Amino acid sequence: MRKRVNALAEQLLETLEERGYRSTSPRRAVAQVIANQDKHFTAEDLRGQLPLLGRATIFRSLKLLVETGVLCRVLLEDGDLHYQLSHRGHHHHLLCVECGSSQDLLGCDIEELLHQTSASHGFELSGHWLEVYGRCRACSSADKLSELTTA
Amino acid sequence: MRKRVNALAEQLLETLEERGYRSTSPRRAVAQVIANQDKHFTAEDLRGQLPLLGRATIFRSLKLLVETGVLCRVLLEDGDLHYQLSHRGHHHHLLCVECGSSQDLLGCDIEELLHQTSASHGFELSGHWLEVYGRCRACSSADKLSELTTA
DNA sequence: CAGCAAAAGATACTTGGTCTCATTAAGAGG
DNA sequence: CCTCTTAATGAGACCAAGTATCTTTTGCTG
Q1: Which domains occur in chain A, in start order?
Q2: What is the dihedral of CA B109, B114, B116, B119, to 10 degrees?
């Protein structure tokens, strides 16, 4: 497990190096921490885990990682913007409002549907932003369980 | 046209009054300005048009209007949050990246599709946020026209 | 038209992020 | 391995959007 995580951090750094960015020690630290994150996080979360890094460095790294596609931004229900690892290109998130976990939404025909619908409004679609909120399997079954036991 | 706009402002105020909020002169001013807006705007835009109102008052009014469902927040492609009139309940926006206009997306089966897709991920859907970006009919035909004439 | 609560205004503060600029450190070339 | 160049960092000022606090004003009800 630990090995895998480090492998992920390595991978993030490689992505940066491929694009001509240096592998500096702050960046290694950021990559390590991000690779360990299991849910979406804010710049502040990162800062808490990397108190020795300058504020600007954290923000610069985040920006870079978003630009290179390593991270993506997720919009919370209240409008807060968080970050999380983006394993693939364009995708959407199923965000659990209870535990804060998120899964990627795959194999969904939404792009197709959006194209059709916007075309019918005379609209030439170029992009979209979609976030989906609800309860993950674990949280919703935990709910049902507690209903049964408290009843 | 002018008459309609004032009627709209009236209507916004009535919505507030129905919920027990007073009709004060700052609120009347805000309602008037919002009713005249033809695209999404920021608090700063409003402030520019209402220089005599306190900053906090503008923000308080916006918040109130969002809570009462008169306004909705729209997410721009770059992550900026703007406001705009919300004529109906839940809906989505087709935002023109060229002229900044927006249309509401109606008669779309997205909710249904989302429900199915998230259920297949074991996810109990409770809400979502969708914004669609592209070119409106006017802008995309203007583009085509200029291509023709410059060719 | 008096009095009270709601709202407004001024302004300090907070959060998330960018800019500037002097200093440090990758890493390429000798 | 050393040197040099340039990218990157850190510190801290700055900014934008929004909230909190506190005093004054204003709608409204009786």
Answers
A1: 1-87 (1.10.10.10), 89-151 (3.30.1490.190)
A2: -160
